[in-house]
Amino acid sequence: MNHDSNQSTDREHPDDLVARIRSVRAGEATTVDRLEGMLSRIDTVDPALNAFHEVLGEDARRHAESIDARLAAGDDPGPLAGAIVAVKDNLCTTEGRTTCSSKMLEHYRSPFEATAVERLRNAGATIVGKTNLDEFAMGSSSENCAWGPVRNPHGVDRVPGGSSGGSAAAVAADCADVALGSDTGGSIRQPAAFCGCVGFKPTYGRISRYGLVAFGSSLDQIGPIGRSVRDASLLYEVMAGVDPHDATTSELPVESPLSEGTIDLRGLRVGIPREHVTDENHPGVTERFAETLDTLRSAGVTIVDVDLPLTHHGISTYYVIAPAEASSNLSRYDGIRYGHRAEALPGEGLEELYARTRSEGFGPEVRRRIMLGTYVLSAGYYDAYYTRALKVRRLIKQEFDGVFSQCDVLLGPTTPTPAFRLGADLDPVSMYLNDVYTVNANIAGIPAISIPGGFVEDEGDALPVGLHLQAPAFAESLLLRTASAVEATHART
User: What are the structural domains, with CATH classification, of the chain?
Assistant: First the structure.
């Protein structure tokens, strides 16, 4: 079936990245002027949000000046010339620190740069600062941060989601054009939904993880947060592709997803997982999603009800695999080679110093996951937990493969609820369930995106919610073109 559409991708989005880049290239604005506007905005609103851990003002000014000089000389600095980008603080940069929002790395300065960041700089982007996150990307609310919680621009008593909450809040508050996040179980898409942004997680292996401080190495993926699908697509094109520094990157060619226009929704088969549309969802989430389905039916979409019975096994599978990998990855932080080191006490042995250093350097959620991961990898429990989780992971991947034989893409709510309140007394399991609809995309390694799905009322507040689309592995072009078409239906309603 041919889903091509002649619809132009050049429709005007006055607030999206492409429009802002065009204004710089047309001489209507300069990169320096745009940067100064962002820095002023950060000074004004970020004290209430805490989205940024470090603002790279002087470094960013030097880079912006160099971009403007190249444009004035008739050079082409790259497709992102004029773009102001924020970077999650678990991505290594040679400017500023890379702390992972942890006291363990409070003073760490990386001698190298993440491939994704380097490719953005080479494309002309100016990095404005490093954003806060749940410590070592472990969390769903951006409250587990050594520098205090991040707050949602749509309500400062609400969480922005996590772990890329600082990046999503920065974009939502117009403190950056776009931002980079990392996604291990929903950490780009969930905060994008809570903050009313677009958040895109590509297929595992599409974007190099070199320079991303590892949490769950078989699950982690870098991706963009922006105002539109077109923002996400542009950054994806710049960052994606094989990298000799990361053996897991795919050698498949990277397409330009929106170059052929958005997809024709007529006849497109959109699968709706029954397990994602339940009475457990917030009433507003259910209502907004039902309205979206009505709009898509009117546009000619074929709605297909599908089953993903392993949906609720994803959380338990994830919370065996991810902590196991985290336990291994974080073992290097001992305070001896680098990182926080406790003051040695008289007569104290090395093991005691290690233990005290790690207890002081890591927050409670990170310690919880390290202990959980160490337990499931220990003798006597490895087969019972870790090996079994890997078997369920394979079944989840097979389940997605089967469902995609029935439909082109999957659609559901990104989260069961809108953003909850800061300090909500959620036990760890309830907190983990915020990722119930997002985590299986990481387990299966498939691409997924959250786009704004409207607003709902919750305790007197109007809060954004997200629509979650998933596609087969390496079908980024299909996913982004479909997301752009669905985005356009919301713009018209």
Answer: 17-264+414-492 (3.90.1300.10), 269-310+392-403 (no CATH), 313-387 (no CATH)
- Give the residue from 66, 104, 79, 108 showing the smallest Cα distance to 91: 108
DSSP state, residue 460? T
pLDDT category, 7, cuts 50, 70, 90?
A: very low
Query: Which residue among the candidates 102, 182, 187, 327 is catalytic per the annotation?
Result: 187
Asked if residues 170 and 131 have their Cβ atoms less than 8 Å apart, the reply is yes
pLDDT in tens, 74-100: 999 999 999 999 999 999 999 999 999
- State the pLDDT at residue 433: 84
Estimate to the nearest angstrom the gap between the alpha carbon of 435 and the chain centroid: 12
**Which of these, 345, 421, 355, lies nearest to 161 by C-alpha position?**
421
Which pLDDT score, from 0 to 100, does residue 8 have? 35
Higher pLDDT, 352 or 198: 198
Q: Is the pLDDT of residue 6 over 70?
A: no
Residue that wins the pLDDT comparison between 3 and 486: 486
Q: Which of 101, 140, 141, 163 is catalytic?
A: 163
| Residues 140, 435 contacting (CB under 8 angstroms) | yes
Bridge partners for 304 per DSSP: 271
- Average pLDDT of the chain? 94
Read off the pLDDT band of 14 (50, 70, 90).
low
Q: Edge-to-edge, what's the strand order for the sheet holding 302-306?
A: 52-55, 126-131, 84-88, 178-183, 221-226, 198-201, 448-458, 461-470, 409-413, 269-273, 302-306
- pTM for this model (two decimals): 0.95
> Could you tell me how many residues make up the chain?
493
Mean of pLDDT values over 47-62: 98
Q: In b/e form, how buried is each residue of 325-334, taking b as 16+ CB within 10 angstroms?
A: bbbbbbeebb
Q: What's the rounded Cα separation, in Å, for the pair 10 and 13?
A: 9
Residue indicated by tokens 């999603």: 289
User: Whose CA is closest to 338, among 99, 123, 87, 88?
Assistant: 99
Per-residue DSSP letters for 295-333? Answer: HHHHTT-EEEEE--TTTTHHHHHHHHHHHHHHHHHGGG-
- Report the SS3 class of residue 89: coil
Catalytic annotation present for 23: no
40 is catalytic: no
88 tagged catalytic? yes
